[in-house]
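Shipment paperwork, digital attachment
Item: protein structure file
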Amino acid sequence: LWPRPTERGTAGPPEAPYDIGYVRIQGATPAEIVIASATDGSVVDRSGTRAERAIVSPDRTTVLGLDGRTDDGPRVSLVDTTTFSAMDLGPLGDVAAAAWSHDSRSVVAVTTSGDVHLWDRDGTVVAEATGATLSDARSVAWGGDGRRLAVLGEDALEVLTLAETGGAGFVSITTADLPGTPVAASWIDDTRLAVLARDGTIDVLTLT
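Attachment content:
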């Protein structure tokens, strides 16, 4: 969630243009995404989009809402913080992790079963990898080149490479078995990854 200000104003929504201050999940049944102003903390938009988690793009123009509970299961949605329009991306299952690309143009979500779904910010499907070999997926991280994704599972790391600019889909998927119980992975550069294990050890993997 985007950080909250220390004080919240009570005035009505500010006139555009404005800078969003934070995004929060408000309410219990159902919970919804609420966008607030950076100026005074006042509510800019009550999106009505049901969600239990929200991830804001780096440029703060789009919010990914996760796990909005509906009759047909958890759903994924995108909310535009400028127009307040919302797009339902449909049911996805239990999402373990999600991340925006560094340029805010794409967002990826990984389910606990290891399925990977990638969209443009307008909701267009860019790539999907279903029936993945990973079990108990727990995190996903973008490489600095914007073409590689590292998905961490219970005992393995999967690196998915996107097609060149203008293409769609994953052109390769590489899986590396890991010792111990990994808890987090982070890119060092375009060819190396650091993987932290539960016992505190750190392994450095080099892509070949």
